Amino acid sequence: MTMDFASRVQRVEPSATLAISNLAAELEADGVDVVDLSVGEPDFDTPENVKQAGIDAMEAGHTGYTTSNGIPELREAIATKLQDDGLDYGPENVIVTPGGKQALFEIFMSLIDDGDEVCLLDPAWVSYEAMVKMAGGTLSRVDLSPYDFQLEPALDDLAEAVSDDTELLVVNSPSNPTGAVYSDDALEGVRDLAVEHDITVISDEIYKEITYGVEHTSLGTLDGMADRTLTLNGFSKAYAMTGWRLGYFAGPEELVDQAGKLHSHSVSCAVNFVQHAGVEALENTDESVVEMRDAFEERRDMLADLFADHGVDVPVGDGAFYMMLPVDDDDQAWCEGAIEDAHVATVPGSAFGTPGYARLSYAASKERLQEGVERLAEHGYLD
Ligand code: PMP
Ligand code: GLU
User: Fold this and answer.
1) Where among 228, 248, 283 does a domain terminate?
2) What are the b/e assignments for 306-333, b being 16+ CB within 10 Å?
3) Same structural domain for residues 23 and 69?
């Protein structure tokens, strides 16, 4: 029998980031020592107190379904954190999801109809494009690569790319894959265009806690943005909790009502004891977050210096744990070669909409980063 697959799945490819890390894992299973700089995942273990909170919650019997939108304690804790960031959300504005990815999926599915236009700032994280396509939307894209991945100098291009037909704009600062943290002037420019054209904006703040010497501003705090911003975050990056699958979004109650339908009919709720661990992560991990952030910053500086020693100038962002290394125009071939010859796994920039680069995650030990650069140099990938 041949199955007749829906066009929504045929429109997309599997996640490139996960595909490459799967390939790296397969090579490793065959005994190859791969320096895996592909997937964006902290190499730290989840803080001990968070793990313990999960264990305690499980032992206390928090193993059943929860309220679909999330346990009240966690939604309260999230709302408090968002209020501390200057955002005016209460627990009723929050849906807790199994990972930030699910939160994004619910937002796109709730807002995008066939043919609706979504604007992305390229390079943009791989799953935005796929989710827009699955929802039936069309894409309008703004290339930030001529501006060292900064948004402010690209505001005129953004003004060209959006119109009254634009339904949604996605802003991800600090950015995956560039690490760029957008300036307040840039965000104000976004605000002006969003208000002018009545555009809803997703502010993906999943790397918000990981910034180096700069303050991150939440887009929803800007005048005129509160009721048109959907603020997204998750526990994967700041608290090294990728495998726990916990995230959330906050927005106007009318969106929460609509997305809540998708949520209740698909995942029902996020995992009960994981949500309890999430409360601990939000309330008692300040020191661990700072320790991890400091380590990422040192690695960023070291990696940029190592590339500079080889004559490669890499635009360095002030947040997240990614770098876009300029490579050949055929970045796909470069990345395939790098993993096959040098056993260094990276993700082609074209997966993020920007060919000519390879994305590196520096959430790896200094030794592995050094080893990675040495191998790339030895095999001629930095020439
Ligand atoms: N947004 C961005 C920009 C990301 O890089 C990721 C990476 N995983 C996510 C959202 C979703 O993360 P998660 O589902 O692990 O919360
Ligand atoms: N967001 C991370 C990355 O870009 C994890 C993998 C994924 O979800 O895409 O590598």
Assistant:
1) 283
2) bbeeeebebbbbbbbbbbbbebeeebbe
3) no
| Ligand 2 nearest-atom number relative to CA 127 | 9
If asked whether residues 277 and 336 sit together in one domain, one would say: no
Among protein residues, the one whose CA lies closest to atom 4 of ligand 2: 40
Examine the domain organization and report whether 309 and 222 are in the same domain: no
Residue nearest to atom 1 of ligand 2 (CA): 40
Ligand 1: centre distance to CA 244 (Å):
13
Is the separation of the CB atoms in 100 and 231 below 8 Å?
Answer: no
Q: What is the pTM of this model?
A: 0.97
Is 155 within 8 Å of 186 (Cβ atoms)? yes
Per-residue confidence (pLDDT) for residue 16, from 0 to 100:
85
Of 252, 283, 314, the residue at which a domain comes to its end is 283
Which positions of the chain have pLDDT values less than 70? none
Instruction: Tell whether 196 is covered by a domain.
Output: yes
Cα-based distances in Å from 175 to 172, 335, 347, 370: 5, 21, 15, 24
Query: Are residues 156 and 199 part of one domain?
Result: yes
Q: Are residues 125 and 269 in the same domain?
A: yes
- Asked if residue 176 has its Cβ within 6 Å of ligand 2, the reply is yes
Ligand 2: centre distance to CA 119 (Å): 20
In whole angstroms, what is the distance from residue 104 CA to residue 110 CA?
10
H/E stretch holding 376 reads helix 366-378
Ligand 1, pocket-test mutation among 18, 236, 275, most atoms within 8 A of CB: 236
Q: What is the pLDDT of residue 97?
A: 98
Q: Is the CB of 104 under 6 A from ligand 2?
A: no
Ligand 2 close to Cβ of residue 17 (< 6 A): yes
Q: Please indicate, yes or no, if residue 134 is contained in any of the structural domains.
A: yes
| Ligand 1 atom closest to 242 (CA) | 15
Express each pLDDT in 223-262 by its tens digit. Answer: 999 999 999 999 999 999 999 999 999 999 999 999 999 9
Domain that holds residue 321: 12-40+287-378
